[in-house]
Amino acid sequence: NLAGPEMKTGFGWVQAKPACSLAPFAVTPDTLGDAWGEGRVHLPLMVDWNGERFGAPLGGLMGFGFHDLVAHAAATRDLCAGTLIGSGTVSNPDYRAVGSSCVAEKRAIEMLEEGAVRTSYLAFGDRVRMEAVLPGGQLLFGALDQCVVARAP
Q1: 138: how many CB neighbours lie within 10 A of its CB?
Q2: What kind of fold does domain 25-147 have according to CATH?
Q3: Which tens digit of pLDDT belongs to each residue from 107-131?
Q4: Which end of the chain is more exposed for a tag (fewer CB within 10 A), N or C?
Q5: 3-state DSSP assignment of residue 96
Q6: In terms of DSSP bridges, do strands 144-147 and 127-132 run parallel, antiparallel, or are they unpaired?
């Protein structure tokens, strides 16, 4: 378990998280209309784990906007054309009502609030689906829909 020791470094969770995935489509702020503001996507991120809703945190409540993330990344390196910046998991102060988008975060909350972890880690065969839906029902960036499988040798 790398999450606990890594949180103490102040760098965020880099080693404790696996490689990331991108949605099938990229979107620009101008395509979002009223759903874009203050460097954030003001839509819920629907997260399902094995067909059950795990969370629907609101992107507009992210701690940092994309302008902040780009500035932070650019402080120590050049960002060339085509650089992709991801926000990482989306968290909300009212996580009890909206749920989570990160299993490790949910486990940490359970440990802090209940003294024990109830949520398991993902297991082989588990499926996670993430999507943001525009007010008219259209998927914003398509769906990330992935199944946990064993790595090929």
Answers
A1: 8
A2: Fumarylacetoacetate hydrolase; domain 2 (3.90.850)
A3: 999 999 999 999 999 999 999 999 9
A4: C
A5: helix
A6: antiparallel
